[in-house]
Amino acid sequence: MRPDDLAEVRHLPLFRDMLKANFDALMQGAYAQAFPEGLELIRQGDPADFLHVVLEGAVELHAGWQDRSCTMAVVKPVGTFILAACIKDVPYLMSARTLERSRLLLVPASDLRAVFRRDAEFAVSTITELAGCYRAVVRHAKSLKLRNSRERVAAYMLKQSQLAGGALRFTLGIEKRLIASYLGMTPENLSRALKTLDDVGIEVHGQMVTITDMDRLLAFVPPDALIDGPDAPGLVA
Amino acid sequence: MRPDDLAEVRHLPLFRDMLKANFDALMQGAYAQAFPEGLELIRQGDPADFLHVVLEGAVELHAGWQDRSCTMAVVKPVGTFILAACIKDVPYLMSARTLERSRLLLVPASDLRAVFRRDAEFAVSTITELAGCYRAVVRHAKSLKLRNSRERVAAYMLKQSQLAGGALRFTLGIEKRLIASYLGMTPENLSRALKTLDDVGIEVHGQMVTITDMDRLLAFVPPDALIDGPDAPGLVA
DNA sequence: ATATGAAATTGATATAAATCAATGGTTGAG
DNA sequence: CTCAACCATTGATTTATATCAATTTCATAT
Question: What is the value of ipTM here, to two decimals?
Answer without folding.
Answer: 0.96
